[in-house]
Automatic annotation (TrEMBL):
The keyword Ion transport does not apply. It is found in: Cytoplasm. Belongs to the methyltransferase superfamily. RsmC family. Specifically methylates the guanine in position 1207 of 16S rRNA in the 30S particle. Monomer. Its main location: cytoplasm. Its EC number is 2.1.1.172. This is Ribosomal RNA small subunit methyltransferase C. It comes from Alkalimarinus alittae.
């Protein structure tokens, strides 16, 4: 069990079994110890793993949908700090006055500094427990919350590559919120000729790559996949904002992707939440040939220090570095 879950598990007596909402839980078996009404996550891999383990009343999506107001909410610190305000606003709008909000998180995730934010929900938050480098906080909701509207959190920015300028729609916590990422910008300037037919944008974030691909070649049928429901929500908004078409769906790595693509483009993840995690991209590179048509191009941008060159060379043909700057490198190869 993860450290945060262990801290919750040693405090089971604080849960009174009445209308408990759990938000952002890890994919361990903590849920088997709790009597909960609903468990919500943005993370498709957590949702898939818990569903496969037989847990019920799980929900995955950009927004928590419930007509019910909950008496108790157990919230795990979200993967990135920018998501925290959004999550507080969403969760507190689903709580009744007098209800209890419990927040658990690791010190390295910044739980220490979060207590201040709890006072936007109610007065005098208290630290209930600390163990395993984690803390558990509680606050009783006393402040009426505004109705929550996810679209109020969206931001737009323009981005360009070559002659083309598009508008990206993003939200806190989604890559990349507020401005185009420098690595993505380098890939966008070096997309090469986009084939027609099925094209994959792996780890699409708010959809900047997929949208530019669709703009460059209207014959490209772009599929944008990501693990994060908020990313997919934004990707959908980005395509719509630019009158572009694409298929948007969740996939953990390439697990939920079927068939073969005529091209694959990515600025892949190297983080799971706050932790560095190269294994997602390593597995993606090893398995991507099974999803590519013969001679299909592959383009990937990454930090130059990441050791993907050998992997790409081993998995695909005609490997080369297209361009690089002091920080990033764009690789190309073909199936
Ligand atoms: C570096 S960001 C790139 C986002 C976007 N393509 C861009 O360039 O702005 C990587 C994306 O991969 C997603 N991701 C992380 N783990 C994943 C997984 N296991 N399967 C699919 N996508 C994942 C993240 O949610 C994030 O949106």
């Amino acid at each position: 069990m993860q450290n945060t879950s262990q801290v919750v598990a040693r405090n089971l007596n604080i849960f009174d079994g009445s209308s408990l909402l759990i938000v952002g839980m890890p994919d361990d078996d903590l849920l088997s110890q709790l009597d909960y009404s609903q468990a919500f996550t943005w993370d498709y891999s957590v949702y898939s793993m818990l569903s496969q383990s037989g847990f019920e009343n799980l929900s995955w999506g950009a927004e928590l949908k419930s007509d019910q107001l909950f008496k108790q909410v157990l919230m795990f610190m979200p993967k990135s700090k920018p998501e925290l305000d959004l999550l507080f606003a969403m969760v507190s709008s689903k709580m009744e006055i007098g209800g209890e909000l419990l927040l658990v998180g690791a010190k390295k995730e910044g739980i220490n500094s979060v207590a201040k934010k709890l006072s936007t929900v109610g007065e005098n938050p208290i630290k209930l427990d600390m163990a395993r480098h984690c803390q558990l906080w509680s606050v009783i909701k006393s402040i009426e919350s505004k109705p929550f509207n996810l679209d109020d959190w969206l931001k737009e920015y323009e981005y360009s590559a070559g002659e083309d300028t598009l508008t990206a729609v993003s939200i806190p916590g989604v890559f990349s919120h507020g401005r185009l990422d420098d690595a993505t910008a380098l890939l966008l300037e070096n997309l090469g000729k986009i084939p027609s037919g099925r094209i994959l944008d792996f780890g699409c974030g708010c959809g900047v790559l997929g949208a530019m691909i669709s703009k460059r070649n209207p014959e490209a049928m772009v599929e944008l996949v990501d693990i994060n429901a908020l990313a997919l929500y934004c990707a959908e908004k980005t395509l719509a904002r630019n009158n572009l078409k694409g298929k948007i769906y969740p996939s953990n790595g390439l697990r939920d992707v079927t068939g073969r693509f005529n091209g694959v483009y990515t600025n892949p993840p190297f983080h799971s939440g706050v932790k560095t995690n190269y294994s997602i991209t390593e597995t993606f590179i090893r398995t991507v040939p099974d999803h590519m048509a013969k001679n299909a191009p592959f383009r990937l941008v990454a930090n130059s220090f990441l050791k993907y060159a050998e992997l790409i060379d081993g998995a695909l043909d005609r490997y080369a570095v297209v361009t690089e700057n002091t920080k990033f490198r764009v690789y190309k190869a073909f199936r």
